[in-house]
Amino acid sequence: MATTITTPVLSDTSDGVLTLTLNRPEQLNSLTGELLDALAAELKRAAGDDSVRAVVVTGAGRGFCAGQDLRESFDANGGLDVREHLRTRYLPVIRGMRKLEKPVIAAVNGVAAGAGMSLALATDFRIAGDTATFVQAFVKVGLVPDAGSSYFLPRLIGLGRAMEMAMLGDTIDARQALEMGLVNRVVPVADVESSAHEFAARLARGPRSIGLIKRLLHESMESDLAAQLVREEDAQAEAASSADFAEGVQAFLQKRAPEFSGH
Ligand code: T3D
User: Fold this and answer.
1) CA–CA distances in Å: residue 178 to residues 72, 91, 148
2) 91-120 residue pLDDT tens
3) Which of 76, 128, 149, 190 would bridge with 183, disulfide CB 3.0–4.6 Å?
């Protein structure tokens, strides 16, 4: 019998946008160690690849990501050492998205559950299909939010609503997610990948400062004003010495559209 080897994460680059597709559609792209390692490796590669200026993460088939693969969690060998698994498999992905000085966009094409929702929350922008759903599924199996959900969720939607989602584990739809500020846009599900690509391609044409803006705004969530003003000085000094700043000013003076290189 022929064995089919499937790649857990598909990657494709066009218009400066790297699209990473979680590729376990029959299991709603639930997360195995193999898939998480592949995702972390792609993010690492994206950091060092100048031709990649924005990243889209999406799911194959009808789901975005159903969280940790529960069959892997409790297999015949007694299952995973959760602490070790979070540290070695999830952390590189969540950190990889956050540390990457390039925007990351989740194209949420279907259900985002448990750590699958955490993945979406760890990106910088979420574009949801109109049939997408979000569920903090952890509590339903007796767990707590992980892979960054307990950090990102209250920051995005406020403590009260985060507490409700995390403790009740109710599913919210795309419209509710938009009202809560959990997603940036809702589009017809058939258009979610193209909309996310268009959004990402626009960012990919932007200047070097896009990455610095990402860093600054994320840092602001943990800074006081005094520290943040210093961070702005540092980031602005870096932006002002970039080739893209020179191009931006030249283009303004010459009354033409700038062509940014990302440097
Ligand atoms: O171990 C650690 O490191 C701890 C970390 C934990 C982090 C977590 O993410 S905990 C939370 C894990 N996720 C869940 O609890 C969600 C489980 N899935 C669901 O509740 C439902 O599948 C959905 C609400 C996501 C979607 O429901 P529905 O009705 O659209 O689809 P379905 O029929 O339930 O699922 C379709 C298939 O995907 C099905 O396979 P089958 O029966 O047709 O062969 C189902 O078993 C599979 N699937 C869905 N989610 C998972 C999964 N297989 C493994 N693990 C999953 N998480």
Assistant:
1) 33, 27, 20
2) 999 999 999 999 999 999 999 999 999 999
3) 128
Q: Which protein residue has the closest C-alpha to ligand 1 atom 37? A: 27
3-state secondary structure of 102: coil
pTM: 0.96
Rounded distance from Cα 168 to ligand 1 centre (Å): 17
Give the neighbor-by-neighbor strand order of the sheet with 172-173: 111-113, 133-135, 172-173
For tokens 């969280």, name the residue: 67
Distance 66 CA to ligand 1 centre (A): 5
- In this structure, the chain runs to a length of 263
- Which atom of ligand 1 lies nearest, measured to the CA of 146? 7
Element (H, E) at 104: strand 104-108
Q: Can you say how many angstroms the Cα of residue 163 is from the centroid of all Cα atoms in its chain?
A: 22
User: Could you identify the residue written with the tokens 């094409």?
Assistant: 109
3-state secondary structure 129-141: ECCCEEECHHHHH
Coil/strand/helix, residue 249: helix
CA of 110 to the centre of ligand 1 (A): 13
C-alpha 248 – ligand 1 centre gap (Å): 48
The residues of the chain scoring below 50 in pLDDT are: none
DSSP labels, 150-189: HHHHHHHH-HHHHHHHHHH---EEHHHHHHHTS-SEEE-G
The mean predicted confidence, pLDDT, of the chain is: 96
Ligand 1 neighbours, Cβ below 6 Å, are: 27-28, 30, 66-71, 73, 80, 82, 85-86, 111, 113-115, 137-138, 140-141, 143, 146
